Each structure stands twice: as C-alpha cells, then as structure tokens.
C-alpha cells in the first residue's frame, strides 16, 4: 500500500546483534525497537490517580493491555493517542510525541472504546470520512478495502444508528485501519461482539501483527487475550503489574498459593483424603461446611480432587477457586 | 465470583467427578470476571427507590460532583435571586426608619415578577438534565427493569424538578418575608400579623415550582439532546410572550383578550402574584382573579403530566 | 445529491456538520423559529392601521424580534451543537486523530453552521417581507422583483446584510464558547437575555460588547431612515470591523483550545 519502510516484523531474529540502543523497557523483547514508549507516565484528575508512573515499551506484533475495569487502560491508550496530556512523564509513538502533531496520525490508528458513532451516516460514509480526513489519494477504494476486511460490505449501506454493538465495533476497526497505520491502538474491540465476529476480529488482529504492525489491544478478559497475544502488559490500579510473555507470567501465577472452595456431601471425609495429597498445603472447613483448601500446585490439585472424591465415594457439588476472579489473579501479579 | 473449573463438576450439575477424572485438564486459567454477586442486604422498598432517584436527579441537575463549569450556572442564578431578595431588606433596614416604614420598597408581587426570568432560566437549566441524559444514554430500560415503574420514574423526576424549583421560587421570597419580620420591633408579633403574606408566598412558590417544573420536563421528554430542550423552553417563553402582546394589542378584545395571558407563562405568573398580593391593583393586562390564574396554571401542570405519562407509559 | 458527494472531498468536516444538523432536531427548531416573523406578519395583516408596513418590518420584525431574540437563539442552537454535540457524544476524536489542522476543523465547522444557519434564519425574514409587501398593494408587490415592494426593498436588504453579519459573529463566538463551557447554549441564552437585554438597559456601556447592538447599528446605518433609529448606534463600518475582529479572535481561541484540550 505505502512506500514507507515497514517496521521490523515478527520474523526478524529475536537474538542476534542488537540495534544501536539497547532498550531495557519492560514489556519489550530484548533487541526489539519500540514503536510505543511510555516513559514514567502518570495521569491524575484532582486527587484521583488514573495512571501512576508507568513505564513500558511496545514493539511490533500484537500486545495485549490487560487489566480489570477501571485499571487505567483506556486512560493509557488515550494518552498514547494524544487525546489526553500526561500529568507527568511522556509518551512517544514512532519516536514522536503523541500530542500536538496532527501529522503523526498518518501512522497511527485508534479504535476508541466509545460505542457511539455518528448515527446519521452509513457505515460506508463513516469509513470514507476517515479516509478523506486521512487525505488518502483514493478514499473510495481504501474504504471498500477495509470494509471488506472487517466483513461489512453488506451492512455498509445502512445507517450506523441501526447497527448492533458488534457491527459498530467492526466498522470502528475499519475506520481506524483505512489508512493502513503502522501503529494501531484498540480499546476493548471485542466488547459486544458475538463469537463469530470475535473470531473474525481476533484473526484480523493476528494478521496485522504478523504483517509487522504494532497492535496494542486492551481487554479485561484474560482468556480472550490468550487467543491473540503472547505479549501482555498488565495494569492494575493505574500501575504496571506485569509485562512480558503471557506464559511466563501465567507460570508465576501458578506457582503462587491458591485457595479452592469445595462443596461436597461428605466434606470431612474428602478433607481427610485431600490432606494426604502432595499438592495440598492445608485444608479447613468454613462456617457453611464448605471445604477450603490451599494448594501450591493448582493443576495437580484440580486433578487430585475428582480422583479423591471417586475413591472415597464423595459427591462433589461445586469446585470453585476462592480467589480466582480476575482481580485476585492480578493481586498475585502485584504481589510478585 | 463463582468461577468453576470447566473440567470439573460445575455447580448445578451435581457431578461426582467420574466424568472428568483422569482426563487431563485441557487448559488451566480460564478466569471470568463476572463481577456479579447476589445482594443479600435489606431491601428498602419502592418508596426509597423513588427517593434515591429524586436525590440523584437533583445532584445531576445541579452539577454536584462535576467540574465547576457544570455548577456555575445554578450558582450564578442563586446569587442573582439572593441579591434581589437581600437588597430591599438591606434598604429597609438602613433607611426604612426615615420613611414610612410600612411601605415596602419591593412588594412581593414585584419581587416574583422580577425573578421570573431567573426562575425560567433555572428551569431551562435543570429540567433537561432530569430527562434528556437518560434518553440519550439509553439508561431508561435499566431503570424500568428495576424496582422502579415508569410512573415512579416520572413522579421522581417531577418531584426532583419541583423541589429544586422551589429553592428558587419559594425560598427567596421566604427569605424576603423573614427578613422583613426580623426587622420589625417585635418579630414574633410581626410574623403573626403577616402570616397571610407567608401563606400567599407558599401558594405562589409551590404553584410556580410545579408550573415551571412540569412544563420544562414535558418539553424535555421530547428530545434526548439537552441543548434542544433548553432552546425550546427559552424560545417558548420569549415567543409566546411576544405573540400574546401583539395579539392583545392588535387583534383580540373582550374575554379573549383577558384570557390571552395564558399564552405567556411570564404574564400568567405575573397575573397570579399581582392578584394574590394586591387584589386592588390597576394593572389593565391582569384583570382576572387570582384563582383563575391559579386554575390556568393547574391545567397546564395536569396537561404536562398527562403528556409525559403518555410518552413514558406505554398503552398495554 | 451529486453536488453533496463532490463537496465531501474538499470539505469533509463541513459536510459532516451539515449532515449532523440535517439528521437532528436542531434544524427543525431553527426552521420553526425562522417562521415566527411570518406568523407576526400574518397577525399584522389582520390589522394594519397601527403602523406602516415599513416601520412594522424595520422596528417590530427586525429590531425587536429578529435581532435581539430569534437570530441569537437560532445561531446559538446550531453553533453550540457543531462541536458541542461531538464533545457530548465523544465523537470528536474521529476528527482530531487525523492529520488535519485544528484551524481547518474549526473553520469547516463554522462553515457548516453558516450553511445551515444563514438560509434558515434569513428565509423567515424574506417570507415575512414578501407577505407584507404583497398585502400592501397586491399588484405592485407581485410585479416587483423577489415579490418585495420597492419601498420595502431597502429595509429588506439592510435586514439581510445586518442579519448575515449577526449570524457569522454569533456562530464564531459560540462555537468557541462551546469548547470551553459544557452548557454553552444556556450561557449564550443568559448572555443574550440577561446580559444584553436587562443589563444593557441599565448600563449603556455594555453595548460595546454586545453583538446585538452592532447588528442593530448595521441595520439602521444601512437603512438611513431618520424615523428608524436606535440609541448610541455605531457606524456600519465600525460595526463590521468590530464583528470581523471578534470572529477572528473567536476562531483563533477555538483553534488553540482544540489543540490543548483533553478529550475523554
């Protein structure tokens, strides 16, 4: 599409001679050049701190920005896009400051979290408007291309006001992609999509990453992120909680003690059996006669529970992680 | 918080583990932040729900917990009426003795007429905030799927609008009355003597609050865009008044001429307060009796409520 | 339809703004407002004995109805909505996250407001004039150009020119205000009803910062009729220059604000 030099792609060797500057930014695989640099960035509103002294780098490929609702993900993305000024620190995209330089938007695309789009335009008009504002030489062709990419060719003639959430997400993605940006920021793009649309968007995200684009996708759903990003950046309470390879971070979570709550018809009998298991650290009964077990090896423990139950003839009614909500997983990351 | 490992018995199935035992868990780490918890606390009932909506609506309309730019307009309007109420008290306090002190510098009816512009801008400020945001942000279904019925919703909004408008229709006049009684040689006697004025202030304040509040809400119920509602309210006031004056001066005569005041909210309110506080006035334009103006306002209040009811409560 | 497709390419923000207005309720309200002079003209025709058509149009319609009330409100509704609605709906990033100068966004937004505001505001004036001039003497009225009687034509031209100047000035100023204050329309209404009407009566000095006073000055200056005057009128040229400078400052302030503001 463009004659610009493509940024380094994923296929480049991970090892080998490092480029001129040895980057030691969290989240960046050694030797990679960052497309996005967040440098001690903070953002506060009065007494409320939304983002607190966050530093990381994002290189080409797909990276997920993960964190519970209200963690500061959107604020970070808006700072990267230049919509918000950082209260302190700075944010650079492709070596340019993110704010005050409209020219930089030729290489940057943002899919905002905001669901509302001009209801009086058709999907096609909306994407074309974005193409026109990007001053593309052939806005119509560019618009048709991305509309086809997100599989909206049929619906593009309808008004945006009548779109479902999933359709709106896809047309927003098309609008952000119309100028073929090198850096794409997506704020919760999978929200409101059905499984088929989700699969389509995930495939598109992966494709963009494989093509050497820098794609940063925010999400609060861990399991979703696993499907498209190996590199994650975790934000909790406005602070950087973890950054790096997804599997490595998950292993760290696994190694931590977990509490599991079990409801069974004979909890005491099951407790006696479980305490003999090597993966069990402690077992107690709570006020409701539920069994609460602490384990250091969750995978082994989850295998052991049904085995014990069958051996002892105990009926299991419910097995749930007492602390395994997303929040508590992140709590582990923070304690790391 | 009820996160079940999908490879084990899930709640409700009563699984005994045999179906999955021995099967390697395909993948560990499925975490869902459902964030849903059953509420097990006390339930306060419908009345409390409506009252909560009233309080929330008032906060939103006044810009409480928002930036100063959202609060500035109500504050300026309150300041303006306060100044208008305090100036006559101050003048009467300092120089009242030298003149005939029974003569009021600003009679109540003149006070009400003077602050009417401010009251209507105040209503144009708060009424759209009550309804338009909910329509625009599509939160009405959320309300109506809760303990609050559509009628409760409307009553709460009307209550909130009227309560707020009272703070600028009744409260300033009450301050003026109270100030005058406290200036008297024996305030308690004065209060007893002038209780009639207080009664009239209550009647006028409450009627004006519901009249303006209901009218403003009715207009706001037609659009999701607060600014459009603001515009229609203000235009309504201005254009209707101009229309009334020109019709009166050039076209109408007799009874139609007397009743044409009801076209203009400003003149309707002027008619009410003038005839309420000073029945012997010589104002040619306001030649009906106080109860006629009051009934006219009552009809407008009922009409506005009926229109809103039809808009919000579907015919089933 | 064809023309609108062609116009999208050089002026995308302008066309977006026009579409935004045509798809919303603002245009309906403004059109209804522009018909108010027609309504008043109709009432005047029921009884024309109390004043001459020329004085009725100049004094009642323009100086008392359009200039102080209808024109400011109409333009306020559109101007505060042009960027204000995008802020309220959080769609402004679709415009600002583009390689487009902020000045251009402001100017195109202003252009969009004018394209909708000028015809709607001036249309009512035109129809009211046509109505009254026909009624005065049906034969002369129909014969003269635009349906406007010759003796009323100078009033019409003065009203159109002064009205247009007012539309442009109010539009530029209130686009800017809407970038600074969330309830811009109310602020504008307080400005034009409390500030210009009430305070202007007691403090004549306020006229120096009153758009309405300049609009009325242009009107009476162009009309140059000794019977139709306002107090302390400025000369038309002073008024034009002042309004132009005000527009320029407003556009620059809006551009500066658009560069600096944080968008949620």
Description:
The complex is a heterotrimer of chains A (336), B (316) and C (264). In chain A, strand 4 and strand 5 (96-97) form a beta hairpin. Helices cover 32% and strands 26% of the residues of chain A. Chain A is an alpha/beta fold. Chain A has helices at residues 73-81, 123-133, 139-149, 165-177, 195-210, 222-225, 246-255, 267-275, 298-312, 326-335; strands spanning 36-45, 48-58, 61-66, 88-93, 96-97, 108-111, 183-187, 214-219, 231-236, 239-245, 258-264, 280-285, 291-295, 316-321. In chain A, helix 2 (123-133) crosses helix 3. Chain B has 316 residues and is mostly helical. Mean pLDDT of chain B is 81; it is low at 1-35. In chain B, helix 7 (171-183) packs across helix 8 (187-193). Chain C has 264 residues and is mostly helical. Chain C has one domain. Chain C has helices at 2-8, 12-22, 26-34, 36-46, 53-88, 93-96, 102-136, 138-143, 153-180, 184-202, 211-223, 236-260. Chain C is globular. The chains are: A alpha/beta (336), B mainly alpha (316), C mainly alpha (264). Chains in contact: A-B, A-C, B-C. The B-C interface holds B 67, 69-70, 72-73, 76, 117-118, 121, 124-125, 223, 225, 227-228, 230-232, 234-235, 238-239, 242-243, 246-247, 249-251 and C 24-26, 29, 33, 36, 39-40, 43-44, 46-47, 50, 60, 65, 69, 73, 76-77, 80-81, 84-85, 180-187, 189-190, 193-194, 198.
């Amino acid at each position: 599409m463009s004659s610009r030099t493509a940024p380094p792609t994923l296929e480049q060797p991970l090892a080998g001679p490092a480029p001129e500057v040895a980057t030691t930014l969290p989240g960046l695989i050694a030797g990679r050049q960052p497309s996005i640099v967040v440098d001690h960035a903070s953002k506060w509103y009065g007494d409320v701190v939304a983002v607190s002294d966050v530093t990381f780098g994002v290189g080409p490929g797909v990276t997920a920005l993960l964190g519970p609702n209200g963690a500061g993900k959107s604020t970070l993305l808006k700072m990267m896009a230049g919509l918000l000024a950082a209260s302190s620190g700075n944010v650079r995209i492709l070596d340019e400051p993110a704010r005050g330089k409209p020219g930089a938007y030729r290489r940057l695309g943002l899919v905002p979290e905001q669901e509302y789009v001009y209801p009086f335009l058709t999907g096609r008009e909306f994407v074309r408007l974005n193409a026109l504002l990007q001053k593309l030489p052939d806005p119509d062709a560019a618009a048709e291309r991305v509309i086809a990419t997100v599989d909206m060719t049929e619906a593009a003639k309808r008004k945006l006001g009548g779109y479902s959430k999933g359709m709106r997400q896809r047309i927003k993605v098309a609008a952000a992609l119309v100028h073929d940006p090198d850096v794409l920021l997506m704020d919760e793009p999978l929200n409101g999509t059905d499984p088929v649309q989700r699969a389509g968007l995930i495939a598109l995200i992966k494709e963009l990453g494989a093509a050497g684009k820098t794609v940063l996708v925010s999400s609060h759903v861990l399991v979703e992120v696993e499907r498209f990003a190996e590199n994650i950046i975790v934000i909790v309470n406005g602070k950087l909680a973890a950054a790096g390879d997804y599997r490595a971070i998950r292993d760290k979570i696994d190694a931590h003690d977990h509490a599991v709550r079990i409801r069974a018809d004979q909890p005491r009998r099951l407790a006696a059996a479980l305490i003999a298991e090597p993966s069990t650290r402690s077992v107690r009964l709570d006020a409701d006669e539920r069994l609460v077990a602490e384990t250091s090896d969750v995978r082994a423990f989850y295998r052991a529970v049904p085995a014990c139950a069958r051996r002892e003839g105990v009926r299991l009614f419910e097995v749930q992680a007492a602390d395994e909500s997303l929040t508590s997983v992140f709590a582990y990351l923070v304690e790391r | 918080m009820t996160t079940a490992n999908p490879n084990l018995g899930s709640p409700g199935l009563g699984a005994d583990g045999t179906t999955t035992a021995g099967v390697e868990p395909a993948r560990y780490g499925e975490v869902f932040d459902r964030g849903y918890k059953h509420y097990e606390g006390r339930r306060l009932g419908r009345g409390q729900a409506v009252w909560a909506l009233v309080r929330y609506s008032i906060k939103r309309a006044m810009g409480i917990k928002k930036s100063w730019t959202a609060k500035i307009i109500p504050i300026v309007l309150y300041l303006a009426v306060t100044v208008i109420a305090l100036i006559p008290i101050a003048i009467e306090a300092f120089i009242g003795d030298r003149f005939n002190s029974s003569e009021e510098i600003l009679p109540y009816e003149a006070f009400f007429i003077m602050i009417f512009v401010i009251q209507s801008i105040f209503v144009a400020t708060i009424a759209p905030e009550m309804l338009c945001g909910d329509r625009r942000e599509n939160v009405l279904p959320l309300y109506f799927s809760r303990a609050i019925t559509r009628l409760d919703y409307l009553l709460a909004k009307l209550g909130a609008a009227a309560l707020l408008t009272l703070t600028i229709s009744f409260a300033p006049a009450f301050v003026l009355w109270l100030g005058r009684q406290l200036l008297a040689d024996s305030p308690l006697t004065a209060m007893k003597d002038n209780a009639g004025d207080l009664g009239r202030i209550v009647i006028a304040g409450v009627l004006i609050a519901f009249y303006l509040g209901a009218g403003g809400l009715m207009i706001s119920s037609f659009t999701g865009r607060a600014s459009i509602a603001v515009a229609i309210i203000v235009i309504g006031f201005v254009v209707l008044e101009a229309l009334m004056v020109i019709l009166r001066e050039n076209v109408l005569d007799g009874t139609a001429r007397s009743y044409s005041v009801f076209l203009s909210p400003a003149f309707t309110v002027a008619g009410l307060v003038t005839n309420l506080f000073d029945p012997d006035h010589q104002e040619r334009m306001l030649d009906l009796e106080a109860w006629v103006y009051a009934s006219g306002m009552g009809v407008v209040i009922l009409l506005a409520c009926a229109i809103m009811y039809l808009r919000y409560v579907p015919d089933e | 339809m064809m023309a609108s497709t062609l116009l999208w390419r050089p002026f995308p923000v302008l066309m977006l703004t026009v579409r935004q207005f045509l798809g919303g309720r603002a245009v309906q309200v403004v059109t209804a407002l522009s018909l108010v002079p027609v309504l008043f003209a109709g009432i005047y025709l029921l009884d024309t004995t109390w004043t001459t058509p020329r004085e009725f149009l100049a004094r009642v319609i323009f100086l008392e109805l359009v200039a102080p009330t209808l024109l400011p409100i109409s333009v306020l509704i559109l101007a505060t909505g042009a960027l204000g609605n995008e802020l309220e709906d959080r769609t402004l990033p679709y415009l600002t996250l583009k390689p487009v100068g902020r000045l251009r966004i402001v100017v195109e937004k202003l252009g969009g407001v004018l394209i909708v505001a000028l015809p709607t505001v001036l249309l009512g004036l035109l129809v009211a004039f046509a109505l009254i001039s026909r009624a005065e003497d049906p034969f002369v009225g129909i014969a003269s150009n635009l349906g406007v009687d010759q003796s009323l034509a100078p009033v019409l031209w003065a009203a159109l020119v002064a009205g247009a100047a007012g539309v442009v000035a109010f539009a530029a100023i209130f686009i800017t205000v809407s970038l600074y204050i969330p309830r811009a329309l109310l602020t504008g209404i307080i400005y034009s009803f409390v500030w210009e009407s009430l305070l202007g009566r007691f403090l004549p000095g306020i006229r120096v910062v009153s758009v309405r006073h300049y609009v009325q000055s242009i009107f009476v200056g162009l009309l140059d009729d000794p019977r139709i005057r306002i107090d302390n009128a400025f000369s038309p040229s002073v008024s034009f220059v002042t309004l132009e400078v005000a527009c320029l400052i407003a556009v620059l302030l809006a551009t500066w604000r658009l560069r600096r503001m944080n968008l949620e």
